[in-house]
Specification:
With about 400 residues, the chain is an all-alpha fold. About 65% of the residues lie in helices and about 0% in strands. The chain has helices at about 5-25, 30-45, 50-65, 65-70, 75-105, 125-135, 145-160, 165-170, 170-185, 195-220, 225-230, 230-235, 235-245, 250-265, 270-275, 275-285, 310-315, 335-340, 360-380, 390-400, and strands spanning about 290-295, 350.
């Protein structure tokens, strides 16, 4: 596991300890057990010494300047923004590290940076096939194990928390918002497509999702699955994905231009119209009891006020003020509607009908699912780091253009 992956996952552990400390108002046996487990996980993960030093220095500096308390006491949307920007910075380092690794590999040098395995999170087909092989055949994909774990934990997060991954953890959503804001600077104004066009555009992500599901479930029969997972094409899947975007031909160029256009033109354009992960999580999210809920008796509308602040604040254009329970596939549980609701009403919450789940608890659940579980997979099962030999990876890079299904 690379240094930046270690820092990111251990940061999730630090937040869980901080959450437990505040929830239990100081020391408790639960916090002591969590701290013991955190120390064991840190030691067992065998992280690079440099990453531990960076994390320790960051914690000391944050504590010294009282930024840890400020972070925990921040409002819901401030908390979400801080988490997203931290993860975007982490992904920025991952991108640079992977680029340097591939460049040095291509030059025939010994890479002085390790391969960050989290890049396999952008391989939904490899992850889906790996998960299917694990569940149906009991075999593991040792070339892209991080892809298998990523598909598993993101799917679990969808079943429990709906599309919260999209609005709290996904770096592509943040980049999409930046691109949209840049377009707004050049051409001010929000462009909302008519309903028929909105439905047509939304069908794209489900068409892509259907194609991916067809490949994962039907295209590769069980008898051929072990052979495919050992094939050179599969071993080079991450490099093939990178080549698609960075060695553009006419087809991939049109694809990139279309993605950028939709992302820049419409608010949340990529998330709403293009992302297959978002489509998958939206379907899984229909099964969870945890969702945005509005109390009609507490709502100012029941007292005669014409209030629709929650709906106007919603980035997904959901008419929250007309609903009791938000069961909409575009809801990402960003909690913006809760923040917009007048405090004297306090009519909206996230959770079940009878129990509220705070933003801090939602973040803690995401940390367990998306940061702690991959760390446990790495420590307990040694199932995160790719076992593809360096020389094999260099050979695959040399013949990359000739590899096909």
């Amino acid at each position: 596991m690379s240094g930046i992956e270690t820092i990111t996952m251990l940061s999730g552990l630090v937040y869980l300890l901080l959450f437990q400390w505040h929830e239990r108002s100081g020391w408790s046996w639960q916090l002591f057990m969590m701290l013991t487990a955190a120390v064991w996980l840190t030691v067992a993960a065998k992280p690079p010494l440099s990453s531990l030093i960076v994390l320790a220095v960051a914690i000391v500096m944050l504590y010294r300047y009282k930024l840890i308390s400020a972070f925990y006491d921040s409002r819901d949307q401030q908390l979400r923004s801080l988490v997203r920007y931290f993860l975007v910075i982490s992904w920025g380092f991952v991108t640079i590290q992977y680029g340097v690794y591939i460049f040095q590999l291509h030059q025939g040098d010994l890479p002085w940076l390790s391969r960050p395995d989290i890049v396999d999170g952008f391989l939904p087909i490899a992850g889906g096939l790996g998960l299917r092989a694990l569940l149906s055949l009991g075999i593991t994909d040792y070339h892209h194990p991080a892809a298998t774990i990523t598909v598993l934990v993101i799917s679990l997060s969808g079943l429990i928390l709906g599309r919260a991954f999209c609005s709290w953890f996904c770096p592509l959503g943040v980049v999409g918002e930046w691109l949209h804001h840049f377009r707004n600077l050049l051409l001010p104004g929000e462009w909302t497509p008519p309903k028929w066009l909105d439905l047509l555009l939304k069908s794209q992500k489900f068409l892509v999702l259907s194609f991916l599901m067809f490949i994962v479930i039907l295209a590769v029969p069980n008898v051929a699955l072990p052979g495919y997972l050992m094939s050179q094409y599969h071993q080079a899947a991450d490099m093939k994905m990178g080549a698609f975007f960075f060695n553009l031909n006419f087809i991939s160029g049109i694809f990139v231009v279309w993605v950028l256009s939709v992302t820049m033109l419409f608010k949340q354009g990529f998330c709403r119209y293009l992302c297959p992960y978002g489509g998958w999580l939206s379907l899984l999210g229909l099964l969870t009891p945890l969702r945005i809920r509005r109390s009609s008796s507490s709502c100012l509308r029941s007292k005669g006020y014409d209030c629709d602040k929650c709906s106007r604040a919603c980035p997904s254009r959901i008419q929250v003020h007309e609903l009791i329970s938000v069961r909409n596939i575009e809801c990402t549980n960003c909690l913006t509607c809760i923040s917009a609701c007048p405090k004297q009403a306090n009519a909206i919450h996230f959770g079940t009908a009878n129990k509220k789940v705070s933003a801090k608890k939602l973040l803690a659940m995401l940390c367990v699912l998306l940061l702690l579980m991959p760390l446990l997979a790495h420590v307990i099962f040694d199932f995160w780091t790719s076992k593809t030999p360096l020389e094999q990876r260099r050979y695959l890079l040399d013949i990359l253009s000739s590899l096909s299904h």
